[in-house]
Amino acid sequence: NDVNNRYLSYDEQMQFLNTLSQQYPDDVKLQKLGNSYEGRALTAVRIGDDGSNKPIVWIDAGVHAREWISYNVALYLVYTIVTQPVYRDLLNSVQLIVVPNTNPDGYEYSRTNDRMWRKTRSRFSNSRCGGADANRNYPFFWGTQGVSHHQCSEIYCGSRPQSEPEVLALTNAIQREETRIKGYIALHSYGQEILYPWGHTMHTYPSDVKDLIRVGKAMAKAIKAVNNTDYNVVNSGDGLYPAAGASDDWAKSRGIKYSYTIELSPVDDYTGFVLPEERINQVCREAFQAIQVLMIEVKTMF
Ligand code: 0X9
Ligand code: ZN
């Protein structure tokens, strides 16, 4: 398959998922969560959903359009866990929900017009600038720190929490099952970091931060075992920068215990967001190991 050696268009991504769900109808169920601003379907892939009450790990990717590697990591995860018989056991005790493309409008714009596009593609009347940073648009300490209220900014937080249809669809979908969701990862790039809450401000941590660090380090260790790549485990507010209205903080605020943002490869700003296609495969294999660690951690959480 293609997902580990080239970047796919949104249509190709959907095609890939459709084919997989036809080949594995019992294991791969596609669920439409809503539409993007420009009307593209936001699709969740439900894996190991056999109707029983299992803990859920929720993975979403590509809220920032230019972070292309995240889409491939999400699709590789879906493909690998479904096609490799060795993961059958795990899927019997944990359900995986993957939203491989949370910002399809932005992604297509990044592919065709502006490689460095980050935001959604929503339009505002009387403004020459469009789009909001969907990772500043979640309803938790919305609009407070590390955001801009100017429409032309790369970190414009939107006119109100959940102003972006993509964020509204995702928050609604997560809330429908939040009591069962024990792990959440937002896939981003770049930096090779596993970020844990809180990120809306500095020097502020959840009461169970020790658990978040412990599992974060286990994920980093699993990544390193693949090809000696280092990912640092850091608090997002202290180690990166405070930024309010991000999905990881919101997920944590809803009671999802293990909530992270992973900044995938590279670590250097030489290639930055423009990761060469030859490197897709390794990044996918590394992130897959980290996600497996999280699935194993939550499988007894009921
Ligand atoms: O700024 C972001 O949204 C993320 N970094 S990125 O370079 N991919 O844009 C980090 C978000 C970390 N989480 C919180 N600050 N809550
Ligand atoms: Zn990002």
Automatic annotation (TrEMBL):
Segments forming domain Peptidase M14: 6-298
A GO biological process held by the record: proteolysis
Gene Ontology, cellular component aspect: extracellular space
Recorded GO MF terms: metallocarboxypeptidase activity; zinc ion binding
Catalytic residues (positions): 263
Reported cofactor(s): Zn(2+)
Family to which the UniProt record says this protein belongs: Belongs to the peptidase M14 family.
Protein name: Peptidase M14 domain-containing protein
Source species: Caenorhabditis remanei (Caenorhabditis vulgaris)
Shown residues within the full chain: 113 to 414 of 446
